[in-house]
Amino acid sequence: MHVLLRGNRFGMWRAAVVLCFLGAGVADGGSISLSNEGIVIDKGADGKLELTYPVFVEGENKNTKIIDTSVTAGKAILKYEGGGQAEIEIKGDEIRFAFSNIPERFGKFTCSMQISNE
Length: 118
Description:
The protein is 10% helix and 48% strand. The chain has one helix spanning 16-27; strands at 2-6, 31-34, 38-42, 48-52, 55-58, 62-63, 66-72, 75-80, 85-91, 94-100, 106-110.
């Protein structure tokens, strides 16, 4: 599994941590899909995990809001309050991120995943 990040100043980031969490499940016959809430990793009998879509961080702690999410055929387009857009696409075993028109005040982004033993 590969995670590719492209676009503006975010293009240099590589999501090695995401690969550690997700790679094993997909390599063992799992699947990846997109929902209105995030990236769904279906690990079959081991259950499902969901990685939230990226939100941009302004200043120390202020997360931006996603104001529009459009999911169709392996592609999600997200629009953010205050400007900017992210396009997330599933192609085979790759998750591709492309960011555009991101305001300079957004210096980083964050995603989250709840991991439980159930």
